[in-house]
Here is the input.
Amino acid sequence: MKTTTEEPVQPAGWKNWFSNHGSRLLLFARQQTRTSEDAEDVLQEAMLRLWRSGMIEMNEDGLTEPSLAAAFTHIRRSAIDQARKNIRRANREAKALDSDENGAVVWFKDTLEEDERSAQIEKAIQGLPDYYKEVIILKIWGDLTFEQIAETLDIPMNTAASRYRYALEKLRRTLTPAKLA
Amino acid sequence: MNAEPEQPMDLHLLQLERELFSLTPTEAPRRLTVRLERQLTMPVVVNQVQRSAMGPSVVPFRWRRIAVPAAAAVAVVSVLHQIDHSRPTYPGLAQTNPGVARPPAQPSISVSAGTGYVLQTEPLYISPAGWEPSPNQYYIGGEEDAGIRPSQLRRQGAVESVVFH
Here is the structure.
């Protein structure tokens, strides 16, 4: 039996990078999948692909780290792959319905006085169509430009911008207007 | 390049946007970080397992059953093919007695080479009453592409009336 060993992945500083961006990446992974378990699997797969793809760029401090836009792209592709090949998806969706009803998966962390408002916004975001939801998440919490969003989602830039605006308007109509004042 | 939408948003939308920015996504669970750390720091080992190391190959039972009959069929076809090639190639002789059959003899008439006639051979007709092959050769050519055929008696087949019930 022939065995070859490749160079081990050198995740220099990957922990810092992941601690800075892990939450927003996980948020996008949750939006792209049905359950928190799926989201974690997808995020893990995307991180492995990202590090092994060599898509690393230099940041403002001169340190090399993966591109955040590339990370979102890998998450989306991994989510699509997983959705295609996961034969246990139906079971997980059934569990997801239970989780949603029990409110087990929380997208945002906030102080106690903001809990109610945070839950309201989270519910409103989750009620958006997927094509609005992903643009909102990438723009607000992914900190991407519309150009990067367009590249990540493989849509025209004007489409990304207009979806963002329509999503905000839809959220405003859904949320209680008094709270916005 | 300005990638942001140029159309300004109204105050309510801007307020909503600020409120969304103030929300912080929940952090990735510790178990995910541990899983990633384990996978990213682990050397990637690629095993190229040779076929011989995979143990004896399994032959499905149905193929094992068909192997012997298939080999026998191939042998029979091969033998028949050889027998078939050892016989004369004249059409119709294959159904006749090979011991009696023989190639047709040269016509009894002779044509000199200068006349332009060429020896032709028609398909051989076998008389249904016997096993004697009927040579059926003739010359064709000459100035008017005429044919010269040696006169030779053939056995006539008996024609009998058939009554269908």
Remarks:
- Residues 1-9 of chain A have pLDDT under 50 and may be disordered.
